[in-house]
Amino acid sequence: MSFLSHLECSYCQVQYEADQLIRLCRECGQPLLARYDLARAAAEVDRDEVMARPPGLWRFHELLPVRDPAYRFTLGEGGKPMLKLDHLGHQLGLNRLFVKDEGQNPTGSFKALGLCVAVSRAVELGAQEFVIPTAGNAGGALAAYAARAGKAAHVYMPNEAPLINILEVQMSGADLQLVNGLIHDAGREAAAAAREGGWFDVSTLKEPYRIEGKKIMGYELAAAFDWQLPNVILYPTGGGTGLIGMWKAFDEMEALGWIDSYRPRMVAVQSDGCAPIVKAFHDGVEVADPWENASTLASGLQVPVAIGSRLMLRALRETSGTAVALPDGQIRDAQKLLASLEGIFPSLEGAATIGALQRLVENSWVKPDERILLFNTGSGLKQRLLLT
After folding, report:
1. Range of 102's domain?
2. Is residue 204 part of a domain?
3. What is the pTM of this model?
4. With helix as H, strand as E and coil as C, how does the chain read?
5. Domain contains 179
6. How many folded domains does the chain comprise?
7. Of 52, 66, 138, 366, which one's alpha carbon is 20 to 30 angstroms from that of 115?
8. Tens digits of residue pLDDT in 146-181
């Protein structure tokens, strides 16, 4: 069963009945968050029993929104490894450095987690046809899970997206529309098409359930560290669903009695060619302004307008975290470094966390004996090869 109780606006706290197809708050237009009866779950769900189940996202089904097991569609997402980085750690003077490799998920990225849950819940509530704007990986994930559920998908993607993303959408049978411009341009076209066609739009944080899939990364990392959270988490940040999802998961686990009140310092990592969250954080504002003329090789970081910026900035500040932007050249160097030292070929987005960590080490923002966790959010095999 699911302990889902209601939906709540992340800004004005208006509550909504959960068993309806709904996207944003009808009062203020801000993202909705799924809420659970955590007091009841704490009494009825045994943490050790949960972890004794087969690995994967759905082992946490009581804390996910799908009520009927028949709608828990899966391609084997979740349960991806936590790996200690001894060689990289030695080079950086860090004794407890780890990476969670979400690039091993279906469709080669962490987007599988969010789209798995979003599609599953929307189909349970009656959705028949989906649409998404994407820089690449989210479109592939939607196409795959819509196919798994036997539903139609429409994917709006910038025409300069990596070829592998274009091919996987086409191979999964989705309708692909290539758009001149960036992801926010794709978003405008997708939203217009959704209104005309009556499709359910699963844009980042514009429906309540992608974040529920991403939050499982928080549950998994806590379990991997024997329910003691790390000191620092570095996360590549575009739309920010994963960052917000883990922040949400930590509060849920504390309410369940699974962890204590300690929180990691969370670090948002962006490219300096598109760094609205970094700028907003250091400017001390609550909402990020759109980033003009966004450009970066790391397509997942090329998100100039993020509806979840308020939530991301809250997560960073409440955990005494920070935000770092670095040039594409440094990101490319970091990608080669991790592959050559540790045998992990990360996405450019994941590699950005290594470059950011190098800077934080130089600034003494992290200490040698702190437990530090990097997130690789996708496989480098899915991107254009830019080796020189």
Report:
1. 82-109+211-382
2. no
3. 0.95
4. CCCEEEEEECCCCCEECCCCCCCECCCCCCEEEEEECHHHHHHHCCHHHHHCCCCCHHHHHHHCCCCCHHHCCCCCCCCCCEEECHHHHHHHCCCEEEEEEHHHCHHHECHHHHHHHHHHHHHHCCCCEEEEECCCHHHHHHHHHHHHHCCEEEEEEECCCCHHHHHHHHHCCCEEEEECCCHHHHHHHHHHHHHHHCCEECCCCCCCCHHHHHCHHHHHHHHHCCCCCCCEEEEECCCCHHHHHHHHHHHHHHHHCCCCCCCCEEEEEEECCECHHHHHHHHCCCCCCCCCCCCCCCHHHCCCCCCCHHHHHHHHHHCCCEEEEECHHHHHHHHHHHHHHHCCCECHHHHHHHHHHHHHHHCCCCCCCCEEEEEECEEHHHCCCCCC
5. no
6. 1
7. 52
8. 999 999 999 999 988 888 999 999 999 999 999 999
